[in-house]
Amino acid sequence: MRFGVNYTPSRGWFHHWLDFAPDDIRADLDSLAVLGLDHIRVFPLWPLFQPNRSLIRPRALDQLGLLVDAAGERGLDVSVDGLQGHLSSFDFVPSWTTTWHRRNLFTDPDVVEAQAAYLRALAGALAGRPNFLGMTVGNEVNQFSAAPHPDPDRIDAGQAERWLRRMLDACEEGAPGRAHTHASYDVAWYDGTHPFTPAHSARLGTMTAVHSWVFNGTAQRHGPGGAATALHAAYLVELAKAWAVEPARPVWLQEVGAPAPHVPPGRAADFTRATLAHVLDCPDVWGVTWWCSHDVDRALADFPELEYGLGLFTNDRRLKPAGEAMCRVVREWQEGAAREPVAPRTTALVLDVGEPDGAPGRGVCAPGGAFFEAWMRVASGGGRPAVVLAQRARDADHLAARGITEVLVPQDTP
Predict the structure, then answer these.
(1) How many beta carbons lie within 10 A of that of residue 226, not counting itself?
(2) Sheet architecture: strand order including 347-351
(3) Please, what is the Cα angle at 40 between 39 and 44, to 5 degrees?
(4) Which residues in 151-176 are b (16+ Cβ under 10 Å) and which e?
(5) Which strand ranges, in their side-by-side order, compose the sheet holding 181-183?
(6) Residue 392, CA distances (Å) to 225, 308, 379, 412 in order
(7) What is the largest CA-CA distance in the chain?
(8) Residue 337: is its pLDDT beyond 70?
(9) Which of 24, 131, 232, 250 is spaced 20 to 30 A from 70 at the CA atom?
(10) 282 and 305 Cβ atoms separated by less than 8 Å
(11) Distance between CA 403 and CA 124 in Å, rounded?
(12) 85 confidence band (pLDDT: 50, 70, 90)
């Protein structure tokens, strides 16, 4: 079980790459040491690292290496996101893909080959470092492919899969054998028209990454103290397992945070403890990476209000109550490291989304959907429900491999 944090620099946010300051980075990483974490996830800004289609800046790669080395000196492994892409409501795409050079990010042959070269270069620059975990293709790059993005690069599910495979292959070419994955925001699980699908998330890459944000309708529907709000991350972990080919495929809770006002600051610590407790009761979780390390400096303009206060630390590196809560959970888990593995979830709810690869009916999985609400009723009543696709509900070998001994349809839940 791994515990980490998405590293948001306290000075300048991700614009810190423009004024790279190793001493500030080291001070940030020192502040994380008190939490007992073992990894961070970091975010190069794509336009700064590859400002021209044929130019990947060597100095930028060197600076990324310095950050990874500084983390290693503090006992922290590092996962690196490549195509940034989208961060905290801002898009960072290079000028050679926009306006006069407007080209589809997922299908234009020149763009795709340049993206692959960039990911290969990032991975290759870090491949020799023992604390380099691997690459994530990008942060929620799926948001560029459909509404509500104001200028989407439209594709279908087949094109999305071809693009993902090409990007993951490039990561593997640069750093063979590392943990390379990709990450979608939760529309991939909740919208049957979205081109990035649950099958893509659960079957491509080394592990499945899920991002849990309760401002997606969960907190609005169930309230900041509602059981479903604290259970949402665990729900996504279990939902992800339904599509996996390998029964024990690891799931990485790559992003989860306490966004105000959906989770008021006074409730953030309780939300953190409850969310982690539920997730740690799920089998096959690789790790949890909290969003995020440090608050965004309010001197920076135009962020959505909720983005400013998501850190476990303030931007002057003072530990916040949510950070204290995470620290306690991490220490309690580490002190019980000899514990038995998490028990299988023996009861599964049957999920029918139609044909599973495209999952046209996955809207039932969204907050307010029939399946979502049924799962939450069982879980909030003390149950430990897993999820099984309708096509596998009578597959004895699949059920046995996952430890499932009972299946229920949503209509049969209390």
Answers:
(1) 16
(2) 386-389, 347-351, 406-408
(3) 145
(4) eebebebebbbebbebbbebbbebbe
(5) 181-183, 132-139, 77-83, 39-42, 2-6, 285-290, 251-256, 208-212
(6) 34, 43, 21, 18
(7) 60
(8) no
(9) 250
(10) no
(11) 39
(12) confident
Supply 315's token pair: 């931007």
Beta-ladder partners of 375:
none
Which pairs with CB-CB distance under 8 Å and at least 24 residues apart come from 66-73? 66/20, 66/22, 66/25, 67/22, 67/25, 67/42, 68/42, 68/126, 68/129, 68/131, 68/132, 69/129, 70/22, 70/25, 70/26, 70/29, 71/29, 71/40, 71/131, 72/129, 72/130, 72/131
- Distances from the Cα of 353 to the Cα of 288, 346, 359, 396, angstroms: 28, 22, 5, 20
Confidence of residue 34 (pLDDT cuts 50, 70, 90): confident
Given this model, what pLDDT does residue 67 score?
98
Categorize the per-residue pLDDT at 222 as very low, low, confident or very high, splitting at 50, 70 and 90.
very high
Place of tokens 């991939």: 188
Q: Burial, 377: exposed, middle or buried (Cβ in 10 Å; 0-12, 13-18, 19+)?
A: middle
3-class DSSP state of 197 = coil
Provide the pLDDT for residue 309.
97
Cα–Cα separations (whole angstroms), residue 90 to 132, 232, 302, 334? 27, 25, 9, 36
Find out whether 122 and 82 touch, Cβ atoms under 8 Å.
Answer: yes
**278: CB partners within 8 A, 6+ apart:** 230, 231, 233, 234, 379
Dihedral sign, CA of 213, 218, 224, 230?
Answer: negative
User: What topology is assigned to 2-335 in CATH?
Assistant: TIM Barrel (3.20.20)
> What's the pLDDT band for 358 if we cut at 50, 70, 90?
very high
DSSP tag of 318: P
Residue limits of CATH 3.20.20.80 in the chain: 2-335
The amino acid occupying position 357 is D
Cis? peptide before 94, omega within 30° of 0: no
Q: Is the pLDDT of residue 323 over 70?
A: yes
- Measured CA to CA, the distance from residue 127 to residue 104 in angstroms comes to 30
Residue 262 to residue 376: CA distance in whole angstroms: 18
The predicted structure's pLDDT at residue 246: 96
Q: Region 304-315: what's the mean pLDDT?
A: 96
Helix (H) or strand (E) segment spanning residue 62: helix 58-73
